[in-house]
Amino acid sequence: MTRRDFLDQVGKVGGAVAVWGAMESLGLLGKPLMASAKEFTSPKKSDLAMANKNGKKIIILGAGIAGMAAAYELGKAGYDCKILEARERTGGRNWTVRKGTAESEINGVKQIAKFDKGLYFNAGPARIPQHHVTIDYCRELGVELEVFCNANEFSYYYQENSGPLSSQKIRKGTVKADTRGYISELLAKVSDKTALDRPLSKEDIERLTAYLKGEGDLSSDYTYKGSTRRGYKELPGAGLNPGTIDSPLALTELLQSGMMNSISGDYDFNQQPMLFQPVGGMDQIPKALESKLSGKITFGAEIQEIRQSADGVRIVYKTNKNGKTSEITGDYCICTIPLPVLKNIPADFTPQMKNAIKNINYATTGKIGLQFKNRFWEKDDRILGGITTTNMDISQIWYPSNDFLSQKGVLVGYYNFGQNAVDYGNLSLSQRQARAISQGAKIHPQYAQEFETSFSLAWHKIKYSEGGWASYSASDRTNYYPILNEPQGRIHLAGEHLSYLTGWMAGAFESARIAVSRIHEEVLKESKVTSKVG
Amino acid sequence: MTRRDFLDQVGKVGGAVAVWGAMESLGLLGKPLMASAKEFTSPKKSDLAMANKNGKKIIILGAGIAGMAAAYELGKAGYDCKILEARERTGGRNWTVRKGTAESEINGVKQIAKFDKGLYFNAGPARIPQHHVTIDYCRELGVELEVFCNANEFSYYYQENSGPLSSQKIRKGTVKADTRGYISELLAKVSDKTALDRPLSKEDIERLTAYLKGEGDLSSDYTYKGSTRRGYKELPGAGLNPGTIDSPLALTELLQSGMMNSISGDYDFNQQPMLFQPVGGMDQIPKALESKLSGKITFGAEIQEIRQSADGVRIVYKTNKNGKTSEITGDYCICTIPLPVLKNIPADFTPQMKNAIKNINYATTGKIGLQFKNRFWEKDDRILGGITTTNMDISQIWYPSNDFLSQKGVLVGYYNFGQNAVDYGNLSLSQRQARAISQGAKIHPQYAQEFETSFSLAWHKIKYSEGGWASYSASDRTNYYPILNEPQGRIHLAGEHLSYLTGWMAGAFESARIAVSRIHEEVLKESKVTSKVG
To answer: Which 418-437 residues of chain A touch chain B by CB within 8 A?
Structure first.
């Protein structure tokens, strides 16, 4: 019997007040308010019916993932949700750039994507780990998934000014095989293993040595002499062709190149395989949410004021089209506006809250999509999906994880952060394109001949976002984050910035669940008060 | 200018004999005959036209990958190919089991797959590395690819009778993070690194230590104390929920478990990411080839004799349907029959060839497909694709890499080799099913409730295959393999067994390319002789 079933049974026998009491004794309503989204269950119509409630009117600011997820969940219980969205589209930073996509950056010129029909890149979030709640929403909403290729051993490392391997593209699998080989050899050859820092029995030392031999593909004398794992000089094949392998890179070359330091990036919990993307673009997720929210979203509504009283909330907004100011009232507000935007909107928040909002930094980050006539990376380099990593300021090249073997494709020609992103963001559109192509061409000379068209963006210069994601320092988490998480009267914040999954859609989804649960609790709580009074 | 363009030009000016001379001087016709498929170019009609040839009649034995690829390539130049296929379907060991698939093993009972429509598993080859020629054929034939999930850090290791971690399912990412942590710590803490077996400068030692800190996610004192990479006890999320991590497994526990020894399996050159599978089943490849060979394949034709003279080949076959014996003649024969089958067919081969054929062992291997009502591994375990690895005799559990988030699915409940496969193969169908379920249920208790239907097979008991793939010892490669690669008069062998890519479709494709090139060379060579005589 689930908790939900139990409460339903209690409701049938004892009515709303009994449900309230049961929920309280189950610890569902006590202070502190729900702080984790892990135990979330969607509000149900029967909750409100049992409490003699018809729900309330909830004003939601922003039709990104958090705002729409909140409206979707509240809608399951019959709440009357209205979403105000400044843009003419849903999704916020979940944004797929395809033919006709138009955007002007702050102080920038208008850019219209000229990609061929069917080609696109995900300008914002682009990968979903299998353990994120985002997967559950894809299942529930019928969003079809395909694998996102993150770690591909055939993609390259390419480093400049880094010793003897400078300006050479080397397959990631080669660097990994050689690194594992040397590390295993070094440890396997430590003659007195009992002197190692961990206590090891004789049997453990034998097991460790056997493991190292396999891990590094070492020869019988525990020397690393290369391995088929690093790839072949001549691939093996049919007939009298067993293949040949090259000597390994020298350990000092590897160490000087710094390539080996990038390997552990593949181990990050949010970047380990498997990762996924929706078929057809990341915006299939907001589109699926939007399809559940027909008539509830007002587009082009730029928020001017966020007001509240003891009885309700009042939101003043300007309609982009005619510049007219309107207002809307409701019982509660969920505000998902990114903090760099929110800090400039007059709002009935405490001074502490206002101070917290203005003190959170957002990541500077940018991407460029480059359309090419042919998928030379698949045909010539035999790289199907994955990411090439470099210390040039493009930082990364992403190969598409979809429509393999088709003719044309869009690469992400840079995906960078911090100062690199600021620098790229300061360039004109044509300068960004030229710089991305000239750097990328060092790895893929085919760029020059195959390039067709580009679309670039700097998130810190995109209106209504003004940054990639909340970038908390440890002290921000201590000083400001708890304040942001406390409801301000009838106003609850939500979004990736209200999570420890910043930059991930899962943070937005989970924070929406918390806001939904808290408002729902409040509404049920009022019913208890009413029952006692009535 | 390509070699092909050059020869075309030569042909226009000087005719077939000039082409021949040019080819000879380019080393295209000299002894030894083409031994590598890497330099393959498809035969063209213009080759034969220039040589005043109309091609020849080629009899191909077997409509698997090798046989059909040979017919497809020869067909491009206008050769008249006839394929004799013992089964009523193409593909050979490339075999996708779906609703209605029927098979009787040798001395076995008839089995008909009862999977739901749309559900299937690949009984034979099931993954394609991005560097295999198979990818090129998929591109050329329009076979759509999707990612095959090989290494998934959320799938499990599960070992029995192996120390304190026995009978615990542990995420692969956890084992990997802890292993990398300890190995990095052990090496980072070797106090006198100049005593290590490789010469290391002071700067290299600093770089090595920095690398180890990152590789192992070590603390500032270079101790491994666990890492978020191993996964969380409580996942991080929205609100005041940063997540918590468990202590690492003990090094001695890991060493005793043997789990860490399985990690390097993910590094194998043919199993590194990215890997692919055709959308809709591996048999989309033979189906695509078949669609190019309309009218050229005779099904149900069991080969009885393989004969040749100086002038041509003669193949005697029995039609399965009526048991009638027929024969067909041609100029050349390409024989792709697996050696355990071929050794029992009377053939005009040299005694050395016959001896080689009968001396090659084939792998014993088996699989079972288990259909479940719900994809509990995706919903409960959050495993989307990938492989669980165990020392139980099921060896592996494969989670489907397609149709993620849909309701039902087919797991590969065992995929084993050697004695495990022999043991499973000796069981009745219901015993195999019961054993696979009881072992798998130790990892996934949901098996009991969710199981619906199974289909199992032992390749060494499948008629016309009698094994998984050629399994050469080093001495076999020296003693027998070169003999198998020499054409026997007008008869050329092809198939995965004629390659260093045994067990991979690429071996079959490449060997077909060699047979095609050799026959085409022979035909062009005859034209030279004719020209000189005529």
So the answer is: none
User: What is the C-alpha to C-alpha distance for residues B516 and A268, in angstroms, rounded to an integer?
Assistant: 48
Contact B154 A274 (CB under 8 A): yes
Segment B351-371, tens digit of pLDDT: 999 999 999 999 999 999 999
Distance, in angstroms, between B207 CA and closest chain A CA?
A: 6
Cis peptide before A248 (omega within 30 of 0): no
- B277 and B294 co-located in one domain: no
* Pair (B448, B483) in one structural domain: no
Q: Is the peptide bond before A260 cis (omega within 30 degrees of 0)?
A: no
Do A346 and A485 sit in the same domain of this protein?
Answer: yes
A327 strand-pairing partners: A316
Contacts of A185 in chain B (CB under 8 A): 197-198
- In the prediction, which pLDDT does A532 show? 47
Of B430, B461, B492, which closes a domain?
B461
Asked if A177 lies within 8 A of B267 by C-beta distance, the reply is yes
pLDDT (tens digit per residue) in A125-141: 999 999 999 999 999 99
Between residues 345 and 404 of chain B, which touch chain A (CB distance below 8 Å)?
379, 382-386, 401, 404
Residue range of the domain that includes B519:
45-91+284-361+467-525
Contacts of A463 (CB under 8 A, 6+ apart): A86, A104, A105, A106
Reported as a single tens digit per residue, the pLDDT across B100-134 is 999 999 999 999 999 999 999 999 999 999 999 99
Cβ–Cβ gap A239/B383 under 8 Å: no
Q: Work out the percent of chain B whose per-residue pLDDT is above 90.
A: 86
Chain B, window 198-217: residues with a beta carbon less than 8 angstroms from a chain A beta carbon? 198, 200-201, 204, 207-208, 210-212, 214-215, 217
Same domain, A104 and A134: yes
CA nearest to B195 within chain A: A190
* Per-residue pLDDT tens over the stretch B140-155: 999 999 999 999 999 9
CB contact under 8 A, B500 and A131: no
Cα gap A141→A294, rounded to integer Å: 15
Mode of pairing for the β-strands spanning B110-112 and B102-104: antiparallel
Residue B192: which pLDDT band, with cuts at 50, 70 and 90?
confident
Strands B313-319 and B325-330: antiparallel
Average pLDDT over residues B51-66: 92
- Sequence-distant (6+) residues with CB within 8 A of A42 are A73, A76, A77, A516
**pLDDT score of B26 more than 70:** no
A-contacting residues of B 111-170, CB under 8 Å?
A: 130-131, 133, 135, 138-139, 144-147, 149, 151-154
**Which helix or strand (DSSP H or E) is residue A313 part of?**
strand A313-319
Q: Is A513 within 8 Å of B238 when comparing Cβ atoms? A: yes
Contact between A252 and B200 using a beta-carbon 8 Å cutoff = yes
CA distance A228 to chain B (A): 6
Residue B116, classified by CB atoms within 10 Å of its CB into exposed (0-12), middle (13-18) or buried (19+), is middle
Domain total in chain B: 4
Model confidence pTM above 0.90: yes
Do A277 and A376 share a domain, yes or no?
yes
Cβ(B490)–Cβ(B58) below 8 Å: no
B39 against B409, higher pLDDT? B409
Same domain for A488 and A357? yes
In the structure, what pLDDT confidence band is assigned to residue B17 with cuts at 50, 70 and 90?
very low
**pLDDT over 90 (residue A35):** no
Search chain B and give the residue with CA nearest A145: B404
Smallest Cα distance from A256 to chain B, Å: 7
Preferred mutation among B148, B405, B499, B511 to probe A, highest tally of A CBs within 10 A: B405
- Asked if residue A267 is part of any domain, the answer here is no
Same domain for B472 and B326, yes or no, is yes
Of B154, B196, B241, the CB nearest to A35: B241
